[in-house]
Structures are given as C-alpha cells and as structure tokens.
Amino acid sequence: MSAAISTRLRGPARIEINEVAPRDGLQIEPVVVPTDAKVAFLDALSACGFARIEATSFTSAKAIPALADAEAVMHRMARAAGVRYTALVPNLRGLERALSCRPDELNLVMSASETHNRANLRMTRVQSQAQLLAMTEAANAAGVPVNVSLSTVFGCPFEGEVDPDAVMALAESFANAGAAGITLCDTTGMAYPIQVASLCERFQQGLPQAGLTIHLHNTRGMGLANALAAWQTGVTRFDAAAGGLGGCPFAPGASGNVSTEELVHMFAAMGVDTGVDLGRLLDVVAGLPALVQRDTASQLLRAGPRLRTHQPPAWLAEHFGGQH
Ligand code: COA
Ligand code: ZN
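# coenzyme A complex -> structure
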C-alpha cells in the first residue's frame, strides 16, 4: 500500500511492535484463562509477525492470580523464529523464576510516581530502583538483556502530573546500568500528543542509545494520536495489545492498551512497515471473546480494514436504471 507524501506528517519507514496482550491484557481480566488456551493464544500471535511478544509476568500469585502459571506458559509455548519472547518481572524472586524459563529478554518494571509504585509493587521507588539495578546486572551476567518499563510517566492516577526530570533520571540510571531498552508507559491513558512528543524528543536527545519503546493505553481515546506523535519524533518501538485488552489492576480507572490491530492498520495505511500480517492478527482478535469470556468490541474487526467495500443496496440499480 502506498501512502501520499506529506511534508508535515513524517516518521520512520519501519516500526517494531511488542504484543503485550498475553501479559498486560490477561493480567486484568476477571477470568483466569486456562494455560492451554494461553499457549494457543501465544502460538497464534507468534504467526502474526511481531518483533516481540510479552508472554506473561513473574509476579506474586496474590497480586496477579491470572498469570500464576507463568513457568508453564513459557515452557509450553512454541517459539517462532524471529520473535523475541519477553516477560515482565517486578523483583529478584521474579527474576529467578523467569531466568529458569529461557526468556530472550526480560521486562523489569517500576513506576515514575511514588504512590503508584507503592500500590502496584508494595515497595518505595528507592527500593524498586535498587532491586531493578541489581536485577539488570544479574540478568546481563546470565546473558539475558533487560528492558525497563517505567509506569505512570505521563501522569499518575493518584498524584496527577509526573515530573519529566524524575522520569529522565530513572531512565538514565538504568541505561547506565546496562539496560538494553527503556519503555515509557502511559499506564492510565493520561498522556496527550504534545506531551508524548516532548518527552520522546527529550529522551532521544538525552539518551540516544537507550532503546526507547512507547507503551500507550487508550483509556481516554488518545492512544492512536499519542502513537502518531511518538512516531513523528522518530520512535520505532511500540507496545500494543490485540483487541485493546489490558490495564494495571493497581491503577484506579485503568483500561485497555492501544489496540494492536488499530495501530497496525493506521501505520499500514501510511505505508509504514510494521512486519505484522493484519489479516492473521484480525483472526486472532476474532477469537478474543471466547478467550476472555466477554465482548472485546474491537472497532476495526467490526468495520474491517478501510478498503473493505460493501455491495450497494439492491434498489440502487433499479432506481438509477444502470446509469453512472
Ligand atoms: N513471584 C512469585 N511469588 C513471589 C514473587 C514473585 N515474583 N515475589 C514475592 N513472592 C511471594 C513471596 O515468596 C512471598 O510468599 P510467601 O507468602 O509464601 O512467603 C509473598 O509473595 C510475599 O512476598 P513479598 O516479597 O513480601 O512481596 P509483596 O507481597 O510485598 O509483593 C510484589 C511484592 C512485587 C511481588 C507484588 O506486589 C507483585 O507481584 N506486583 C506485581 C504487580 C503487577 O504485575 N502489576 C501490573 C503490571 S505493571
Ligand atoms: Zn500497560
């Protein structure tokens, strides 16, 4: 598909998508999806062309009961060539568990705001940061690269605005400690496009080697607008969840990630290569209501890709007598 050339709307010709529905999506669903169904879901996603898939999280079963089967999932899923399988890890105990499952990389997590860090991880930011720095070293020593996801960087559901200086200081500490990537997360969809662009610009200028990913939620309907803003600053890595599933159970008002199919569809329309096969992905999305036992209401699945056309009403030919 070729896109019209615009002098204003420009960004990288190729982006990578990290599919996070198996982790961010399933962690907040009220049903516990059986391990077999999770493995089938992951295997179907593996055939879609993602650069990365976040398969699960190694969290406490008390905190996230829906992902208590992390080891079984990691051992049983099939690994497709060219896909990097990652998992979210909040602490040293989780790192130990995760390393026993041969991940391609790991996604360590803490919040940029103090109150969300305490609510989500039951630690202060200082405690989380110290633990994550030690985990970065341990994972690197074991030959597993780490990405660090910083939650609530565009706003905290408890504290409101979050200081970009604090975000940059945290990011810098992890980049200096050997993290291969940093993800800026909009945990409850508080980000808006100019804010996203300005933090992404600052990040890429200040930490050009830090491997920036952007993680957006569509809680206030700004997900795609924020993705577009990030792309215009040169961001090439995006987290997204099939069907727009997702949300942090410890962030009041949290709801779904930016939907992968909508993100892929938008970028494909503009001629940006995402590597993802939209048709295959839509087949997976069509199976989500059965997986999570509720209507997942994917807009794109309902409407179809933008060039899906329909038969005109039957009366048209009769009324216009075959005239054009
Ligand atoms: N995996 C499995 N069990 C774990 C664990 C892990 N990563 N970390 C701790 N535990 C267990 C401990 O072994 C202990 O078990 P016991 O009661 O049988 O002795 C129990 O959990 C309490 O351990 P503690 O270190 O006191 O943890 P906590 O209760 O303070 O919880 C976290 C801290 C980080 C483990 C927990 O808050 C958590 O998993 N949060 C993740 C939240 C999340 O994923 N949010 C969405 C993504 S951003
Ligand atoms: Zn998220």
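# post-check
Residues 2-320 form a domain with the TIM Barrel fold (CATH 3.20.20.70).
The CA atoms of residues 81 and 158 lie 42 Å apart.
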